[in-house]
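Q: What residues go here?
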């Protein structure tokens, strides 16, 4: 049986973090269906304060998602939470690249921070943090 899943990530600014990860992974920011959002507000299922305009597009204020354009990799959903990240992640993404140093530099240019290098046996990686401090590794 094939299972589909998404990875949900807490964020103080879900739209900004979604855009970072979309660029990092060559994903596409999932468009919001503005007509659906307006209908939910009109029917009383949501309030105008539940929405936000991001780059001219009506979006849900409390969440954003990005998807693999090939439909192979999991969807990433960023949900707004009131508190900033505290402590180490319990789950993190590991990115693999043919040219680790080039990929690390590209991610830094997008807003990631290099934290440290790690190794285990013959395997090495760079641990980085996204713009909200969530750790991930590049090998």
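A:
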């Amino acid at each position: 049986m094939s299972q589909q899943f998404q990875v949900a990530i807490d964020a103080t600014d879900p739209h900004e973090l979604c855009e970072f990860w979309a660029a990092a992974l060559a994903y596409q920011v999932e468009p919001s269906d503005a007509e659906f959002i307006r209908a939910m507000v009109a029917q009383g299922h949501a309030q105008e304060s539940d929405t936000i305009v991001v780059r001219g597009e009506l979006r849900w204020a409390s969440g954003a998602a990005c998807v693999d354009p090939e439909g192979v990799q999991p969807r990433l959903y960023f949900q707004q939470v009131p508190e900033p990240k505290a402590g180490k992640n319990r789950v993190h993404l590991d990115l693999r690249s043919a040219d680790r140093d080039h990929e690390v530099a590209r991610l830094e240019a997008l807003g990631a921070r290099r934290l440290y290098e790690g190794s285990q046996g013959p395997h090495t990686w760079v641990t980085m943090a996204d713009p909200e401090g969530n750790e991930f590794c590049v090998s």
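A: Context that may help when evaluating the design: The chain has two domains: 1-84, 86-139. Residues 14-25 form the longest helix (12 residues).
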